[in-house]
Design goal:
Number of helices: 4
Structural class: mainly beta
Strand content: 35-45%
Number of domains: 4
Number of strands: 40
Largest sheet: 7 strands, antiparallel
Shape: globular
CATH class of the largest domain: Mainly Beta
CATH architecture of the largest domain: Sandwich
CATH topology of the largest domain: Jelly Rolls
Distance between the termini: 53 Å
Helix content: under 10%
CATH superfamily of the largest domain: Galactose-binding domain-like
Length: 611
């Protein structure tokens, strides 16, 4: 019973009846590492990093005239400015920018391109590819790379088609486009980057290389790993909801030569690096340009902790070497019996985070703004409440309610409290909530959910933007359009904003917070609530713990966002009482969790760091 869901973003501008642009991410915890193409099997035919403007030509057919610019400054539009400049390999030498937001308005039609000024002689090279780094945020525009063998007739290839409205590519994204069929063998080859649209965000391009295609080069298109159908990749799943895990990938032959016995292998490991499963697809032959898809399932009894699936594609011709960087990728997931969530915070070492909240829209959403996360309940279970991350730009004093909804109501635009299956009392956000960036709110009653799909709802109220609140949205792994959505009370409408809100079901009273109980029933940490001295601490702190038998010990410190900031492996320690000195001088101010992990389990307490 799925209905079409309207697409919306956030804006102070009004190109359509509904506000239409979103704010850029409040958090950007890390940029994707750019894997440069190794050159042992390829030949660079033309390169440019925008340090020499004479290599480029600019033109447009927009109204009014608006050209790309070359420089080192990022976007300056009201909404595009938050993107910041591209973090490309040579951004300091300059890059190309089309700042649609800064240059546009309600009546703009933007159509502009930047390309090589002089023809490139490829007469001796029938197989060529173009690589580049770029950073693009999507609203209603389109980004293309176009090729021509004569400078007159152009073939366009659209880029970033996987980027949802109000979402961005990685900063930067490294793309490679096969242009052999269009300009291979031409003595007058041209290419250009073309933006079309009207009053969107921005697009930046840098470090462009035209090179000869490798003889042998398999490449991953995408990977996925999910415990339910529909493309939803939950990063935090209770064992009670975990059945067979489905994994899969699409990959293709990007080289010239046929690849024989091409296959994908996946190795599952736990957080200690121990292999728990290993699967390989049947071998198949891929001719140049061919694409193939494979998926399979894994049945396993999962213990709590983080698991990684490492994907590798290979063939008889390509077992490694200079072009192997695009043959590998990984996915993580966490088994957490205390919480169920789609966000990857505290599951991936690096996450790309944005946010949505009561100040995301002009004249809408200041009060009664609802964020929604969809959950599939595989086996009937009790749910105690919801937990989620607030940004540190949130303001204490705002009000929050949480609840659960049936999917049918949401898809019929019925998301208000009148339709909630269960709800909570009014919750007033405190200064500590903002400092810790983390909130847990229990329902009025523990609720038993039958198998099926539900939405978790977080309603934000800011008293007309006096106490604005924003919830973190994880954009690390692209999710289906209805994994995370929003409800605007002014429109009485549900929209598909969001990727993976950090809204989780609490499966017990503690949720995802580590259980402050001993390592097992018979072993406890003596006076554990006071086991860190002093607390708060500024430079060092003493961590007291005891072991009832010999154990391998690791001490892990995570910040309020769940990011692991310190790991000390103490090795095997005999039974006894210990005082371990923690160096906290490099930690940011705020709340941290200190976890003592051994072979048999883990236990945690909190540490406040002052600066």
């Amino acid at each position: 019973m799925f209905m079409a869901i309207c697409m919306v973003a956030q804006t102070a501008q009004k190109p359509v009846a509904i506000p239409a642009k979103t704010e850029t991410g409040v958090y950007q915890l890390g940029d994707r590492e750019i894997e440069s193409i190794q050159k042992a099997q390829v030949v660079d035919l033309w390169t440019a990093d925008f340090s020499d403007e004479s290599l480029w030509t600019l033109a447009n057919e927009g109204e009014p005239d608006q050209d790309w610019v070359i420089g080192t400054a990022g976007p300056t539009g009201f909404f595009s400015e938050g993107m910041g400049p591209i973090a490309s390999s040579s951004a300091g030498n300059g890059f190309a920018l089309f700042d649609s937001d800064a240059w546009g308005d309600n009546f703009s039609f933007q159509d502009a391109w930047i390309g090589n000024a002089d023809p490139i002689d490829l007469s001796a090279y029938p197989n060529v590819q173009l690589s580049f780094e770029h950073y693009y945020r999507n609203f209603q525009g389109s980004a293309f790379v176009e090729f021509s063998a004569n400078g007159t007739d152009w073939t366009a290839i659209e880029l970033a088609t996987d980027v949802a409205v109000n979402s961005s590519t990685e900063n930067p994204r490294f793309d490679v486009v096969d242009a052999s069929a269009i300009i291979g063998g031409s003595s007058t080859a041209y290419f250009r980057f073309r933006y079309t649209g009207g009053w969107d965000y921005a697009w930046m391009v840098d470090d462009v290389v035209l090179f000869e295609t490798a003889q042998n080069d398999l490449a991953l298109s995408y990977i996925f790993m999910a415990h339910v159908e529909g493309g939803y990749e939950y990063a935090r799943v209770p064992a009670s909801q975990m059945g067979d895990l489905t994994w899969g990938t699409e990959y293709y032959n990007f080289g010239i030569q046929t690849q024989n016995n091409s296959a994908v292998n996946i190795v599952f490991t736990d957080e200690m690096g121990t292999e728990v499963d290993n699967q390989t697809s049947p071998g198949e032959t891929l001719n140049a340009g061919d694409t193939t898809y494979y998926e399979a399932t894994i049945s396993h009894t999962w213990e709590e902790g983080v698991y990684t699936g490492d994907y590798t594609i290979s063939s008889d011709e390509e077992q490694g070497g200079d072009n192997f960087a695009n043959n590998t990728e990984s996915r993580n997931f966490r088994i957490d019996n205390g919480a169920y969530g789609i966000d990857g915070i505290d599951t991936y070492e690096t996450t790309s985070l944005a946010s949505l909240g009561t100040n995301s829209f002009t004249d809408a959403g200041a009060d009664g703004f609802i964020l929604l996360n969809q959950f599939e309940i595989v086996n009937g279970t009790d749910v105690y409440g919801l937990e989620f991350f607030l940004t540190t730009t949130s303001v204490e004093g705002g009000l929050i309610y949480v609840g659960l909804l049936d999917t049918t109501d949401v898809f019929n635009n019925n998301a208000t409290q009148d339709f909630w299956i269960v709800g909570s009392d009014e919750y007033t956000v405190t200064a500590d909530d903002v400092t810790n960036s983390f909130v847990q709110i229990e329902f009025e009653d523990v609720t038993t959910l039958a198998p099926g799909n539900y939405f978790a709802a977080v309603e934000l109220n800011s008293f007309e933007n006096a106490n604005d609140l924003r919830v973190v949205d994880d954009q690390t792994v692209p999710q289906p359009f209805d994994a995370s959505m929003i409800y605007l009370p002014e429109d009485v409408t549900v929209y598909s904003n969001g990727n993976a809100f950090s809204i989780r079901l609490m499966m017990d009273e503690n949720g995802s917070l580590p259980n402050a109980v001993g390592l097992d029933e018979n072993e406890t940490i003596a006076d554990f609530d006071g086991a860190i001295r002093p607390n708060p601490a500024g430079q060092t702190a003493q961590f007291d713990f005891s072991l009832s038998e010999s154990e391998d010990v690791t001490i892990i410190i995570t910040d309020a966002m769940g990011r692991q900031v310190s790991t000390e492996r103490l090795g095997n320690m005999p039974a006894g009482n210990y005082v371990h000195e923690l160096n906290v001088s490099d930690l940011a101010a705020g709340l941290h969790h200190v976890t003592l992990r051994t072979n048999r389990g883990q236990t945690s307490t909190t540490l406040s760091v002052l600066k």
